[in-house]
Amino acid sequence: MRRTRVKFCGLTDADDLASAIAEGADAIGFVLWPGSKRAIDLAALQLLASRVPAFVTRVGLFVDPSAEEVEACLPWLDLLQFHGDESPAFCARFGRAWIKALRMRDDIDLYTAQRDYAASSALLLDAWRPGVPGGTGETFDWSRIPADLEKPVILAGGLCAENVGQAIAAVAPFAVDVSGGIEASAGRKDSARMRAFMSAVASADRR
Ligand SMILES: O=C(O)c1ccccc1NCC(=O)[C@H](O)[C@H](O)COP(=O)(O)O
Fold first, then answer.
1. Fewest CB atoms less than 10 Å from the CB: which of 4, 138, 178, 200?
2. Using CA atoms, how far apart are residues 91 and 158, in angstroms rounded to an integer?
3. Over the stretch 143-152, which tens digit does the pLDDT of each residue have?
């Protein structure tokens, strides 16, 4: 049976992190962009990342960071996720696996993007809202994702327990990524919502 991987994003709290791991998240996202309501600082990253067990991927989210900012976080991250206008060369310079988040503006060409970001481990596709680099809580038209992309797709943007089954049926992504859809309030996750999300993904995978 095919299994859709799940990334829970925007964790800020140790209890929420423990719940996310208990519910079976494959990856945990830490927002390291200070402009986010879900941002954590380096001290919190150290604390939270040290509680993530082996085989769960620790992902750091950045928006147009300096190289020094990324380098300071590297000891606590397995994977880098870039949400800004970072060039492919910048994303690749840290010697760490990385993914590129692409916001689905009307004129985006995903074939060109996957060629430009050929060295990425996957493309994360998220909703476009002008001036907001991520975590919008909004969906986009999933039929805009071509079925023949070579890069693994991580589907993001407004997912929740109620719509993730439909999203998996429509896109068959490698992974799904959720933040607002498992939250009780900005940055605080809700364990019942996390469980419902995991259960909806598992149901979709069984179909
Ligand atoms: O969450 C943020 O505030 C954020 C800010 C800047 C860049 C990225 C950010 N979040 C990224 C994500 O959490 C994911 O792309 C997410 O899965 C989509 O968020 P949501 O629509 O709330 O599920």
1. 138
2. 25
3. 999 999 999 9
Ligand 1, closest atom to CA 7?
Answer: 17
The least confident of 46-55, 76-85, 129-138 is 129-138
Residues classed as catalytic: 9, 126
Nearest-atom index, ligand 1, CA of 9: 13
Q: CA-CA distance, 19 to 79, in Å (whole number)?
A: 21
pTM: 0.96
Interface ipTM above 0.90: yes
User: Which of 1, 2, 7 minimizes the C-alpha distance to 155?
Assistant: 7
- Structural domain count of the chain: 1
Our CA angle for 136, 152, 180, nearest 5°, is 20
| Site to substitute for ligand 1 among 11, 12, 31, most atoms within 8 A of C-beta | 31
Structure tokens at 185: 């309030």
- Domain of residue 16 covers 5-206
- Ramachandran sector of residue 157 (left: φ over 0; alpha: ψ -120 to 50; beta: rest): left
Residues in the chain: 207
Residue 163's domain is classified under what CATH number?
A: 3.20.20.70
